[in-house]
TrEMBL record:
Keywords: Signal. The lineage of its organism: Bacteria, Bacillati, Bacillota, Bacilli, Bacillales. Transmembrane segments: none annotated. It comes from the Bacteria. The keyword Transmembrane helix does not apply. It comes from Paenibacillus aceti. This is Copper amine oxidase-like N-terminal domain-containing protein. Residues 36-144 form the Copper amine oxidase-like N-terminal domain. Pfam families: Cu_amine_oxidN1 (PF07833). Residues 1-24 form the signal peptide. InterPro entries: Cu_amine_oxidase-like_N (IPR012854), Mao_N_sf (IPR036582).
Amino acid sequence: MKLKKTGFVLMSLILLLAMMPAMTSATSKLSIVVEVNGNLISFPDAKPFMDKSNRVQVPVRFVSEALGAEVGWDSKSKQVTVEMGEDTIVLTMGKKAYTVNGQTKQMDTVAQQKQNRTFVPLRFVSEALGAKVIWHKDLYSVEILTGLAAVQEEKKDDKDDKVDDTADDATSTLPKYIEDSWGRKRRVEGESQKQTAEGFSFYNSYKSGLGASYESVDGKDMMFLQSSIHFDRDGVDYDQQVKDLDELLRQKINSETVDKIMKYVKQKTKRDDILEAKEFSDKVYGIQVESRYWGNIVVSIWYK
């Protein structure tokens, strides 16, 4: 009898181990995270996915909204045109050939339509627009840097390639930023000036790891301040980030509302916890809290 039980247990264990890769893969495909200049991008309906060529595909609307490009669609030729500044990219559904400023190039994947949505390969489009794209395999996330941030990252990469690791004075002139295990540097409070906007006073990046970004808005129902509790950086302090966020919100938002927000925020303490998008409000502001699986906690504020 004991032998039969042992055999059953072993067989069950073998079956469980055999299923684990598939289960892990299925979970991963649900949660591709995209950040642009440190800001988590929300995809409320059409979600990014990994295609058969192991390329991240994103809804073309992302290109216009997050990267600031103009997007056009020709239903007859089934072509997507992306324009930003002096750069123009043309992709044809199902074709690996695409053009950048009139020059034909080749991808190892194709733009495609899925569930009545148009998707484009994130890396090829972003890099053609001058952005820096970094894929973090272990985090199943994409980091995109644009403008000055992309230029600084390229210079950093070039400098790292030239620096002799054995030279003690080689790194002595580098700014004293916080650097994570990916080699990314970020300014922290005390090294960057505190900002004041819409009555809120904040740092873009706190010592705790909390991040905040502001966009000027004209009119109601427009987000003007977004803050993120980070899980994806080395040296972050979750408890202090929560305290910093609480202090930031209480500057202008009704205390009772902040209490409700923070109670909801504190339900996520690990990266694999999920916070469904939930809205709060007082007489002046609307606030949304959201965090996906393996993502950061994003708090967005707008005028009602």
